[in-house]
Amino acid sequence: MESSVAEHPAPPRMGLPIPNSKLAMWLFLGTEIMFFTGLIGSYIVLRFGSPGWPTDPEVTHINVFAGGVNTFVLICSSFLVVLAHDSIQRNNIRRTQLSLLGALLLGCLFLGIKSVEYKGKFDHDIIPGHIAENDAAAMLKVTNELQAAADAWTNQIMPEGEDSIFKKRTLVQQKLTEAGDNAPADLVAWREFSNAVDKIRDEVSAGRVTLHGDDSHAEESHDHSESHAAATLEASLAEHGVAGGLDFLEADSRYAPHLENVHEPHPIKYGNLFASTYFFITGTHAVHVIIGMFLFLTVLVRGPWLKQSAATYIENIGLYWHFVDLVWIFLFPLIYII
Amino acid sequence: MKRLWWIFFLMIWPVLAVIVSLLTPQLQWGFPLSGQSDSPLGGEIDHLFYLILIITGVVFVGTHIALGYVIWTASNRPGDRRAWYTHGNHKLEMTWTIIPGLILLFLAFYQMRTWAEFRMEEAYPEAAKQNIVAEVNARQFEWRIRYPAPGKELQRKPQLDDMYGVNELHVPAGSPVTIHLRTIDVQHSFFLPTMRIKQDAVPGLVIPVWFEASEPGEYPLVCAELCGWGHYKMGAKVVAHPPEEFDEFMKKMHQAQFNDGFAAE
Amino acid sequence: MTSETPAHPDHSTDETHSHQAHGHRQSFITKYIFSTDHKVIGIQFLFTTIFLLLIGGAFALAIRWQLAFPNTQMPFVNKAFFEASGGQITPEFYTMLFTMHGTVMVFLVIIPILAGAFGNFLIPLMIGAPDMAFPKLNMMSYWFMWPAVACFGLSLFYEGGPAAGWTSYPILAALYDAAPGSGFAQTLWLMGITFVGVSSMMGSVNYMTTIINMRSPGMTFFRMPLTIWAMFITAILQAFALPVLTAAGLMLIADREFGTCFFVPAGITVNDAEPTVGGGQPLLWQHLFWFYSHPAVYIMLLPAMGMISDMLSCMCRKPIFGYRPMIYSMSAIAGLGFIVWGHHMFISGMNPALGMTFMVATIMIALPSAIKVFNWIGTIWGGHIEFNTVTLNSIAFVSMFIVGGLSGIFMAAVPVDIYIHDTYFIVAHFHYILFGATLFGIFACIQFWYPKMFGRMMSEPLGKLHFVLTFIGMNGTFFPMHMLGIAGMPRRYANPYLHEYLEHLLPLNQFMTYSAILMGAAQILLLINVFGSLIWGKKAPRNPWNSNGLEWVAPSPPPHGNFEEIPLVYRGPYEYSSPERTDQDYWPQTEHEIVSSSSTTTA
Ligand code: HEA
Ligand code: HEA
Ligand code: CUA
Ligand SMILES: [Cu+2]
């Protein structure tokens, strides 16, 4: 080639026959792949290094169906992105915009479903650092939550003042004694509830109860609400352990509004690790989805000024979106199914 | 003249380095204390160390002689003579790939046995597998040691009649012994400099470590993994007893720890 | 190529780069602060990292002070800094010192000076491009360094500072209770790492794109200078190793702040706090960290290797010996670099069988390094050397690299590593490579490309004096560290003399400290030389070293857009002393015909 170069040669263009931005996007996706490799690798190491990892959806509240729908949603949105790229190349601006809008909406749908899933976990307090991993920790957690509920109730009755909770409690007690027999119903309920909580706490700290009581068929009949609640707290505790005690309280409609933040105890071995990886990995993926949607917006806001020259740009964000989709296709079986 | 000075300056340091290295044992800067390893495995490690030292020493001296030589010739070229125009030499390239390659492979495979002996369960000496003397539990910033009662075996869970000690690990001399290494808090590292033994203690793991003190005596034990501000002061000692006195010593310790003041015997 | 008028460079043939501002008068701010010109960004990186080198060096001197005169008052600074502890360096403070010393040196000095300063400045110039592929991204990669600096800097002011070493192993780094006072400081430290990561990631994607797609006509891959090859391979390493560290860093932040437990096993009681829940694995962090940080040590070396090759070839007036083997060995180092991370973890408690495989891989990495060393020697062989500062620093690079590399072999051998792991032998190893090799390389680079950067020459006598003093100081400081290591002195000890078997090492440590002070003082000469030459330096011609590279075709300093016309490349960059050329002993890459050449040198 050297010899063929004359005075001012028509220079051969060096490099790959693709625009810089596209090349850079591919390279960037390479770094993203390594990012998720790090995460997925950690997941695999942690998971297979922890015998007894929770897999049962009953336990983890993983929603395989929602995850599956989400997979489908993302695949559809990927298709729309392809359509958008195709349309802009044909200079069909309207269809481009519609397809991107569709992809954007599907992205929203994805996040919506995701939040429903997250909500399901929050409701059961499946949050890293909150999960009891064995019976003892679960009992401790329930008693703490019950105590917190009782305290909240106390505060509700005696909202004013900076007094300590102990002081307030004695104040309410006083009120009750003053009122004598015709005490208001909610104060009576409060007293009964506090006593019950104290009772449970004492039993737990004395080590007289277990989580599900002595009878081993507690496991079999899983729906607590009906069968468990025995006539008195003592009986429930004795028969069905702390879980039974809680059921007893829940059966009483007066307490219901106060038990919102008390969670059904069920210890999950490696639950914290499970929740950590689940939230972290799906969370980082969701952040990527949001970034992708933001990129769609950058095109959509151009409105009528969108020109065919944006084709490369749309192709690049399309590449990004496909990547986000692809990551999900790996994550879904890994986290939801195996 | 100026040239000479620069070549002298650049090439004097390898000479000094070699001299200092040769003097090191006399100056007590080498291996700690006696300079001899206090354990048989340590002896093997020293042997490997010296082997590598010789190989790398030869490479070091050789490359520096070559470097000095080429600098010398290159700076002595008369002004009108151009540099030697060459883009390299395939044969040379092959030689200096293959020869170091073989040396390096040899080095790598020569190391394996000692490593296996130290760390691969299958290759442990029989005696080490039998002789589990204590659990060493590191914490910020001390070593807690738990021995089983005389005549009993070390259990994973603490037993009622276990004996405890802090910063002093008693072992019999002259035979391999194993300790179980744990940590209560952060990472630490169990380092016996004179025996050339080191093993990190990792939260959540129990790691068996075996070593053998050749002679009765006291040996330093320090921490070699950053564990917080007090890392440097995690010093302790390993006390190796003559084997015939060791059982006696353990019995005495048991008595001392379980004597309730009313003379049990 | 003879025209001297700063004509508008004509880069209509190349596509998307946005040159909004070329030719127009720019305000000070857009020109020097928020500049998108790769040369300005490179120089910004250079000055920033030199400044940070001083800070990191100051930390090092404090470390040395403590090791030589434990618990005595430091001169000058004790009043200002250590009032509370009676003028002494407390152990907590010592921990923070070496943590920040390592962090600053690795993440804020060596990596950014190589890739950020020289990579930025040289890549477009050497491949004949008017600028980087993405100038704005380039600017951001510089500005993302500052949040990192801010995070690291701020973390010092939280009581105790970040105190887990530059490796930040959890549990120590994961729990608030583990290190007194280092609560939020450690989180800030991790955020700093994340910013550094983002900055490097942007930089490396940019470099790769530029090198692949922006080469000027005729610049085939195998006509690229080794500097560019090195930068290219380094960028690949960065791009594919760093995201893993970023992921790990985010996980550790989550562990600290959001109650996850990736690295925290159950039942750990630190400082009498409540036992932890969870079931994470502390070793996972080490795997992730070293998966990045081992390639990172080559990120800290390869660019210097490439630039040294160019400088040696030029200073010896001789083609590089074994151009292709050099490229292959660099690629081999990079490739092997991804599978040897476990050699930092031989005694960490990981599966011992892995130790064997990691050992073999690690030892084999010496092979490509050997090829490079021998090729450098071959390059000098039969050359026509001139002893200027560049040559001296480059030769020192080779010599120091051999020592540092050979000490790596000791550690790569697992049984020997049982003994020397986490002793000063390690410290000796990496200072020989990081200071001895890389930093000497950088000194050479500064001297060599300074004329191109600022249009002025640096002072030779000053440069030589700096070299001599640094060379003596550096060997005096770091060679005895090998002995300390063999004597069993663990690293990261605030006061080793507490232990009987180390007491006799105090005089040796004091000797090292004096050497370190000498070395530190020598850096003042560097400062004077760099900043003084801006004013007093001789005006530099276009091609002061009679070098072949494309960068020397552009004016010194090059204008925005670099070249007056697109340079056409006819051959590789190492045609020195070619017998085909009789009028001069070099043959610039852009010159096709022999006769037309003489005009290039007049500038
Ligand atoms: C730029 C930086 C750099 C470079 C290039 C290297 C290069 C090498 N490093 Fe180094 N290393 C570090 C920086 C670097 N290292 C740092 C910072 C640490 C400590 C981190 C910490 O814990 O804080 C470390 C730690 C470290 C360890 C861990 C020690 C421990 O903690 O126990 C090991 C172990 O194997 C190791 C090995 C090697 C090897 C084999 C090479 C090889 O690449 C070297 C190859 C070169 C040669 C061998 C010389 C030239 C060859 C010849 C002349 C040929 C002939 C040779 C023979 C036949 C033997 N290094
Ligand atoms: C490129 C990397 C690099 C460089 C250049 C250096 C340079 C130096 N290093 Fe460092 N070092 C590391 C990387 C580096 N180091 C790393 C990664 C660690 C491990 C950290 C860890 O364990 O976590 C380490 C650890 C380390 C230790 C071990 C600490 C310990 O384990 O307890 C020691 C001890 O002597 C040391 C010393 C020095 C010295 C004396 C210098 C000298 O070369 C410095 C020379 C001085 C200057 C270059 C600056 C001159 C400054 C002035 C004249 C003052 C002016 C001041 C202002 C303007 C504010 N270093
Ligand atoms: Cu314990 Cu360091
Ligand atoms: Cu390494």
Topology at a glance:
The complex is a heterotrimer of chains A (about 350), B (about 260) and C (about 600).
Chain A: H1 20-48, H2 57-60, H3 64-89, H4 93-123, H5 135-157, H6 165-179, H7 185-206, H8 224-227, H9 233-251, H10 271-300, H11 311-337
Helix pairs in contact in A: 1-10, 1-11, 3-4, 3-11, 4-10, 5-6, 5-7, 7-9, 10-11
Chain B: H1 2-23, H2 40-75, H3 90-119, H4 126-130, E1 132-139, E2 142-147, E3 163-166, E4 168-172, E5 177-183, E6 188-192, E7 197-201, E8 207-211, E9 217-223, E10 236-241, H5 243-258
Parallel strand pairs in B: 1-5, 4-10
Antiparallel strand pairs in B: 1-2, 2-3, 5-8, 6-7, 6-9, 9-10
Helix pairs in contact in B: 1-2, 2-3
Chain C: H1 28-33, H2 38-68, H3 78-81, H4 91-127, H5 135-143, H6 145-155, H7 183-213, H8 226-257, H9 282-299, H10 302-315, H11 323-337, H12 352-364, H13 366-380, H14 389-412, H15 414-420, H16 424-454, H17 460-486, H18 506-536, H19 598-601
Helix pairs in contact in C: 2-4, 2-5, 2-18, 4-7, 4-8, 4-16, 5-7, 6-7, 7-8, 8-9, 8-10, 8-11, 10-14, 10-16, 11-13, 13-14, 14-16, 14-17, 16-17, 17-18
The structure holds heme-A (2 copies), dinuclear copper ion and copper (II) ion.
